[in-house]
TrEMBL record:
The keyword Transmembrane helix applies. Coiled coil: none annotated. InterPro entries: ABC2_TM, ABC2_TM_bact-type, ABC_2_transport, Nod_factor_ABC_transporter. It is found in: Cell membrane; Membrane. This is Transport permease protein.
Length: 257
């Protein structure tokens, strides 16, 4: 019954996401526009070890994919606040679903949403920007999936520590910007101050960008992406553990629209 309850919650959340196709498309269009505008700037940072024919698009597109996933880190958190605003949270708690089922059912659809947007960005970039992947597409998908999972679980953690939707909005916005900027997604690390290179490995976005660069730029396969994948899964485990420790299903949340 518990697993079934989580599946029902997940389907319901997916239906809600499905009523917002504009948001999904915007998550593809905005990064592709920014990638198109900045690929000339990114071209100067393409490593000399990259595959032949690699240009700025191969650096800009993965960066924008990770950056916008990070900037949207608060989306899973707002799924929890929405139920409090609608008065349906107590019904979820009274259902056969456990707290874990509820959290997984709320977060998993946003993992899928983030993955779809990043894959959509890569697919659109192929004909529009001449983007190409020199390495393994399965490795690319795994890195994107690990990135989506990590950032979505982090979003659940932000919801767990936030009391109001305004707090969540502020904290997620700040965290998303820090993750995108200092992780080397918005701007390549070589173009940033030297101290950023020392801080970047402490952020999951750094490993997401590194994994994508290995696959896209350096002909990488699953073995080459193993370290970034391991780092992303390690961050995910830490975020999940902290969410478990802090999340209180009986704690009321205040939604201010």
């Amino acid at each position: 019954m518990r697993g079934l309850g989580g599946a029902v919650i997940m389907r319901h959340e997916l239906r809600i996401i499905g009523t917002m196709p504009g948001s999904t498309l915007l998550g593809i269009l905005l990064p592709i526009v920014l990638a198109a505008l900045t690929q000339g700037l990114f071209a100067a940072a393409v490593p000399t070890t990259s595959a032949d024919g690699t240009g700025g698009a191969e650096l800009a597109v993965p960066g924008m994919a990770v950056a916008f996933a990070a900037l949207g880190v608060g989306r899973p958190g707002f799924a929890f606040f929405r139920d409090h605003a609608w008065g349906t949270w107590d019904r979820l708690r009274a259902s056969p679903a456990s707290t874990l089922d509820i959290v997984v059912g709320k977060v998993a659809p946003w993992v899928i949403m983030s993955l779809v947007q990043m894959l959509g960005l890569f697919a659109v970039a192929v004909p529009l920007l001449g983007f190409r992947v020199s390495g393994s597409w399965p490795a690319l998908v795994l890195v994107l999936l690990a990135t989506a999972l990590c950032l979505s679980v982090f979003g659940a953690l932000l919801a767990a520590v936030s009391r109001t939707s305004q707090q969540l909005n502020s904290v997620s916005g700040l965290c998303g910007l820090v993750l995108a900027a200092l992780g080397g997604a918005l701007v390549p690390l070589p173009a940033l101050p030297n101290w950023v290179s020392s801080v970047a490995p402490a952020l999951p976005t750094h490993w997401a960008v590194r994994g994508l660069h290995m696959v896209v730029l350096e002909r990488g396969g699953l073995a080459d992406a193993a370290v970034p994948l391991g780092a992303l899964l390690g961050f995910t485990a830490v975020f999940a553990a902290l969410t478990t420790l802090r999340f209180r299903s009986a704690e009321s949340k205040i939604y201010w629209g």
